[in-house]
Amino acid sequence: MPEPLSPEDLRTKSRVGQLALAVKRVRGRRWRVVPHPGPIEEQRAGSRSGALRAAIFGANDGLVSNVSLIFGVSGAGVSNKVVILAGVAGLLAGAFSMAAGEYISMRVQREVFERLIHLEAHELGSEPEAERRELVEIYVRKGISRDLAERLAEELMRDPDVALDTHAREELGLDPEEGLGSPWAAAGSSFVTFSLGAFVPLVPFIFSSGTRAVVVSAALSLIALFSIGAGMSFLTGRRFYLSGVRMMLIGAAAAAITFAVGTILNVSTGI
Known about the structure:
By secondary structure, this protein is an all-alpha fold. The chain has one domain. It is 75% helix and 0% strand. The chain has helices at 7-13, 16-27, 50-75, 80-126, 128-141, 146-156, 160-170, 183-199, 203-207, 210-236, 240-265. Helix 4 crosses helix 7. The longest helix is centred in the middle third of the chain and has 47 residues, at 80-126.
């Protein structure tokens, strides 16, 4: 006889539908794909690892945010020491913010997923017939005939592990095989990659100053932006040079705008 649910679990159970919908939105938008003939461009879907995605986007955020900050401060006409101070502050503040955000996001997501799977396992153990009918209706809504849906649900419900896996996928939108991820790993990865990206535009100001430092920083940042954009092609399957140029233009626009704003404000104090 399954143990009764706790009051907290009962409250969560009453909102399973809302939570499942939120999970599906977190997992990503579902696109309607229309079958079509003809060849397609080569895709590199096999490279879509979570670690690669975290590394690329962490470095991109660090680079774009800090190059914008550094160029905005440089445009204001302050001394080289102030530029370095602003760059280091931006690097540390952004890296800690990214790490904390990733940790909290992953922790909350993991706890929600674990709670939903726990409740689904309880329902399968206490109300197997209701869960079987629910699975039938899911398949009917997908376009499967009711007779076939009945037989399919009957077979899937025979094995408790298969039943839980199926309900997690079909009802909750979860993929148990993907794992829930480590909040600490996500936080550490974001901190390191953000810091590396944010350090690139800062390097020239450590060894030089003035216009020369700005030019070298811009050149290094553009190269890094192109490399990051090209790396994103391993996730998107797009041509690497198109992704690289797009990222260069986005980063260059952000840096140019902040530099122009800094120049207009010009708060040079001779520090």
